[in-house]
Amino acid sequence: MGRSFRVGSVKGVPIRIHWSFPLLVVLVILPTGAKTTTRSLAEGLIWIAALFICIVIHELSHSFVARRRGFAVRDIVLLPIGGVSEISGLPGAPADELAIAIAGPLASAALALPLALVGYATGAVMWPPTLFAGAIVSRLMWANLLLAGFNLLPAIPMDGGRVLRALLARRRDDLRATVLAVKIGRFIGLTMVLVGARYDLWLSVIGLFVFVGAGGERRAAAVRTAVGGLKVSDVMVHDPTTLEVSFPLSVVAPFLQASPGRVLPVVDRGRYVGLIAADRLTGPPRAVLVVDSTDRDAPPLAADDPLYPVAVECLVAHRRRAAAVLVDGRVVGVLYAPHLEAALRRATASLGISSIPR
Description:
Elements: E1 4-10, E2 13-18, H1 22-29, H2 38-68, E3 72-79, E4 82-88, H3 94-122, H4 136-151, H5 159-168, H6 174-199, H7 201-226, H8 232-235, E5 237-238, E6 243-244, H9 253-258, E7 263-268, E8 271-277, E9 301-302, H10 307-314, E10 322-327, E11 330-336, H11 337-348
Parallel strand pairs: 2-3, 6-7, 9-10
Antiparallel strand pairs: 1-2, 3-4, 5-11, 7-8, 10-11
Helix pairs in contact: 2-3, 2-4, 3-4, 3-5, 5-6, 6-7
């Protein structure tokens, strides 16, 4: 999601911080009528760290439930307004989306209970609710309750909006369920923007995020409907040229120039190794063989993978130009990004969609 940098991982789920995250630090730490001291600065940083640990737990709950139901989790990205779990293949079946969406708010509500017990045991003031003053255990309890309740608003792409779509999809197809959920979400988002303009700027920012995100969900549902029957095998180049790892680099340029994306799969006695691109022919110092310039991290696809979302996430979302298509570890085709995008444009042209969800 945009530019972000990795700060760690939990059970294989990468945790990333978006470039805009420091804006939250600045807004919380900057003085608001009181003089900023070393102590207030430290307390502000501790509060932000504790709050975002709770948000990470909320997002990990989504991610772990998604994994148990067979979805791949790319990462969790922390933003100034919260966190986002990037999960491949959603929404999936209504029961899957419902379970994944509700997991986060349930985890936040569950966190609030032990925090309340600790607060009462230590004599912390728990009432009235506050997020910016008082004992940190009290503030974290209310923050988690707010996080759980606020996320359950029926405004897609928030958790509550995904719960709503999952419930609607039990009696409607994916597109109709999403369109109705989007209308409700946009109304709530617009209301948040207007109310926030009067009372709280952050509410307007979140409302704008909801309003814009709802449009993205609408486009994604339309693409899923339009290309639902298309698979990688329908668009890939069949029986492509492959290059052996032992070929000298000096002889492969003509083969690459003749390929549609100037990218070809590399094999070792017929088994897939990676991809090599024309712009990587020089390779590292003293590179002399194809294997020296091969991108071994290039993810492959299967012939029966759906174009959307699997192929789109493999190529378009990760800005890759090609992916090898394998059967039992052997290359049977190559899917090139221009061919994929052309197929998606043809399939969605009748729906008036101007962009491909990424």
